[in-house]
Amino acid sequence: MTFSVPYLSVFQQTAGDLMGPALCRLQRDTPCGSAVQQLADTGQGCAVIVDRGQRVQGLLTRADVIRRVACRVSADTPIDEVMSRPALIATTTMPAYRALAELQARRERWAPVVDASERLQGLFDAQTALAHGLPAALQRLAAVTGPATDQGLRRCRNGQAHIIDGMAAEGASAAAMQRMLASLNDDLHARAVEMGVNGMAEDGWGRPPVAFAMIVMGSSGRTESFLDPDQDNGFVIADYPDQDHGQIDRYFIELARRTTRSLDAAGIPLCKGHVMATNPLWRKTLPQWQDQIRRWLRRRSETGFLQSNILLDCRGVAGDMALAAELRDHMVAQFAASRSYVRSLTLNESTRGVGLGWFDRLITESEDSAHPGELDLKRLGLMPIVEVARLYATAHGITACATHDRLDALAEANVLSGGDVAALKDAHEFIAGLIFRRQLNDIAREARPGKHITPGALTPAEQDRLVTSLKSVQGMVKRLARDLVGPDAPDGG
User: Which listed site, 26, 85, 155, 461, has its alpha carbon 20 to 30 Å from 369?
Assistant: First the structure.
């Protein structure tokens, strides 16, 4: 199959992005005759029945109209006697691929789309969402959809390689594949949170006592995922009175436990470094996060620098996204205002080398290591690019999170030249592509996906391109040190 733009957009966009207007909105007591006329007047194939607060009550489709005629229902009959229950009520933030797959599973076409307050915003039409290549696309959609259970999430996680394998076969860019995986994993996180909230309500905990957002960090936060993710997450919780701390903290401790457990069961393992919402260091109210940032700035330590760099890649994936955005904006503004802190962050990261040694030889691991004779493409290739982009962006108050977005913003701000940015983006794309190739081969032989390569397995042209890519990265790492640290900076080569 061909991965056309409409097909990819189903994975990368939300139901809110792809919905159309709900032109025909009716009340439950609208007579059938009037409803039929309004459907004809608007030209829509579906009317949405709402209450006076614009909350969805049902649907009236052309099939319902045909059934009404067949049953000889009077034109004065209220439509609540003939309307259908919606097969799905989508939220504006629901991934479009899941809305589409759930409608297909129920053999339905339409889903009303509502906002966080459950008010109607539009109408999602499965046929419009996938106007081309529908049968082939749905075969792949089935691989990443499942019920809201641990087993259902596991099925979605296991199906990701099927999607990426298809994209790779069609020549999709590594950046597009990373964004695809990030979108799929965002949905897994959001569903795990939803399962936790609903399960706690059923178990007598009630609903969340205050607003909150789940954030992800690391490659997930940068939307640069591969096929072997682990958990890097936290909670940003709205402020609340001190006297309510015991009750509210207990709630979010339990929600964090349930959510991270569900993600682990789905195949996104627990973080070995405990960067998870179960750790109180990564579960705070927004004011507590702001206090933590002030402490990092005031009490400088290697641990604080490490944690700062982790949080700089944070992004909201569930809950109140405004809380996550406010945290990011505040953090970047505070760090950018302290040139000495950015210098310290840079010095802390300057020990990371690039996988290129003397005379442009690729650096491989020793014979007594877990990967003898192999090059760690992520640690010695991708991460130096990530850190160059992150540190330059932080120094200049740029709040973008993805590496390519940070680099584009740096070029726009004339911090880096267009040529330098193009070279770094090309290097990032090439190295990420090599990692995907390794991981898909690993999965095909039922091995754990890795991020190492044997240089000898590359073609001569690929080896030359890898060396050229790493030389570009190496030069930029040295420039970063000079720009943000000074002439006495460590080499970083």
Answer: 461
Q: What are the distances in angstroms from CA 214 to CA 170, 245, 391?
A: 34, 19, 24
pLDDT per position as a tens digit, 283-296: 999 999 999 999 99
479 in Cβ contact with 491 (< 8 Å): no
The kind and range of the H/E element at 42 are helix 32-42
Structure tokens at 279: 């750790």
For residue range 220-252, list pLDDT tens digits in order.
999 999 999 999 999 999 999 999 999 999 999
What's the rounded Cα separation, in Å, for the pair 226 and 439?
8
Specify the DSSP class assigned to residue 379.
I
Is it the case that residue 63 has pLDDT exceeding 80?
A: no
For residues 223 and 179, is the Cβ–Cβ distance under 8 A? yes
3-state DSSP assignment of residue 319: strand
Domains parsed from the chain with CATH numbers: 9-135 (3.10.580.10), 146-333 (3.30.460.10), 343-484 (1.20.120)
Q: Report H helices in 205-244.
A: 218-221
> Comparing C-alpha atoms, which of 95, 315, 100 is closest to residue 183?
95
Rounded CA separation 274/284 (Å): 15
The answer to whether the beta carbons of residues 119 and 53 sit under 8 Å apart is yes
For residue 32, give both structure tokens.
């059938």
Query: Among residues 235, 215, 218, which one has the least CA distance to residue 402?
Result: 218
In the block, residue with structure tokens 């009317």: 47
Measured CA to CA, the distance from residue 93 to residue 17 in angstroms comes to 8
- Cβ-Cβ contacts under 8 Å for 335 (sequence gap 6 or more): 293, 297, 308, 312, 341, 342, 345, 394
- Give the C-alpha distances (Å, rounded to integers) separating 62 from 36, 40, 492: 9, 10, 67
Q: One-letter amino acid identity for 199?
A: G
Is residue 434 a contact partner of residue 453, using CB atoms and an 8 Å limit? yes
Nearest to 248 by CA among 192, 302, 208, 278: 208
Residue 327 burial (10 A CB sphere; 0-12, 13-18, 19+): buried
Residue type, 154: R
